[in-house]
Amino acid sequence: MAEEAVGKAYSQVEKDVMVSLEDVIDPELGIDMVNLGLIYDVTVKDHHCVVTMTLTTIGCPLGSLLANQITQAVTSVDGVATCDIELVWEPAWNPSMMSRFAKVALGIHG
């Protein structure tokens, strides 16, 4: 997650959003956005969610598809009515941001 999110305590609805985002699979890699480390932060206030995220590459052709899936996943959570996605490029994503699960699934060791 982004530096500003490190150590942030999530509310229950924000935790529920993160769980829901685990259902959004990157079609190229076959791993969910959360375990890939692409979701940097989630904030919910007044039934509105802002998802701060990145993509594996700036020119990723799946950005629109993923945005639609993310919005659907987020707004399916009780307590969330609307969603905005803040796409950021800093910090730049790299494979070290992936969870152990994602690394094992992709055959990345070390």
TrEMBL record:
Stretches assigned to the MIP18 family-like domain? 15-82
Q: Which residues cross the membrane?
A: none
One family name in Pfam for this protein: FeS_assembly_P
Q: Where does this protein have coiled-coil stretches?
A: none
Q: Which SUPFAM superfamilies match?
A: Fe-S cluster assembly (FSCA) domain-like (SSF117916)
Q: Which PANTHER family match?
A: FE-S PROTEIN MATURATION AUXILIARY FACTOR YITW (PTHR42831:SF1)
What's the protein called, per UniProt? Answer: MIP18 family-like domain-containing protein
Q: What is the lineage of its organism?
A: Bacteria, Bacillati, Bacillota, Bacilli, Lactobacillales
